[in-house]
Amino acid sequence: MHFSSDAVFSGTGGPYTEEDTPAPVNFYGKSKAEAEQAVLSVYPAAAVIRISLVLGFPVASGNSFLLRFRDALVRGKEQVLPVSEVRTPVDVHTLTEAVLELCENRFSGLLHIGSTDSINRYELAKKAATKLGFDPGLVKALTEESVSKDRAPRHKNGIISVEKARGLLTTPMLSVEETIKRAVLLE
Ligand SMILES: NC(=O)c1ccc[n+]([C@@H]2O[C@H](COP(=O)([O-])OP(=O)(O)OC[C@H]3O[C@@H](n4cnc5c(N)ncnc54)[C@H](OP(=O)(O)O)[C@@H]3O)[C@@H](O)[C@H]2O)c1
Fold it and tell me: Could you report the per-residue pLDDT of 62-117, keeping only the tens digit for each?
């Protein structure tokens, strides 16, 4: 099982299905798109799972937006998040359940796992702050005009369709609201 990303898409369209052609806009997306091809060419029976933004707290360590975000809010530090980046998040519990189910079913091929609707990263952060018990006013909007020129380009609409997963899995794909609630409450 290989984990890929919505960053394989250009982000100018969407919702993207498993049938859509990758057209990454940055190095990360390009490396993820090349990795998908490499994995499937070496092992055609592999499962390639595309995810958009994983929300959860790590058991030990690891890359966790929520953990960094909460630590910053505890220190009263304002957080600035882009309004122009729309994502289809998944909570780590739902992702884990889906992955276990796919292993049991010996799924192979491409599959998108994420929420049934989408949200921009600024709105998502405000909702997460509220659910974590902080003042959502600590979350500020990063507008397109104020993005640093040094920042690598991002795919704007990281919106993946999860219709295939909904038809295939008994694990339910959740709404954004349910996703944030589950990611935050089951710490
Ligand atoms: N997090 C997201 O929101 C998100 C969104 C879309 C796609 N993805 C994809 O999901 C995957 C995991 O991302 P993550 O955010 O969970 O990252 P992460 O927490 O940093 O985990 C990366 C894992 O890869 C291991 N690793 C890194 N370099 C390695 C190497 N050279 N050889 C062997 N193992 C190596 C790390 O091992 P150590 O723990 O030992 O360092 C770690 O367990 C990535 O493929 C990423 O592109 C993540």
Answer: 889 999 999 999 999 999 999 999 999 999 999 999 999 999 999 999 999 999 99
Asked whether 95 and 54 are in contact (CB, 8 A), the reply is yes
Tens-place pLDDT, residues 145-185: 888 889 899 999 999 999 999 999 999 999 999 999 999 87
Q: How far is the CA of 88 from the centre of ligand 1 (A)?
A: 19
Distance, in Å, from the CA atom of 88 to the CA atom of 118, rounded to the nearest integer, reads 5
- How much of the chain is in helix, strand and coil states, percent to nearest 5? 40, 20, 40
Structural domains in the chain? 2-185 (3.40.50.720)
- Predicted TM-score (pTM) of the model is 0.95
Closest CA to 114 of 12, 13, 14, 10: 14
Report the pocket of ligand 1 as residue ranges, CB < 6 Å: 3, 5, 32, 51, 53-54, 62-63
> How many Cβ atoms sit within 10 Å of the Cβ of residue 134?
19
* 106 DSSP 8-state letter: T
HSE, side-chain direction, 13 A CA sphere, residue 68:
9
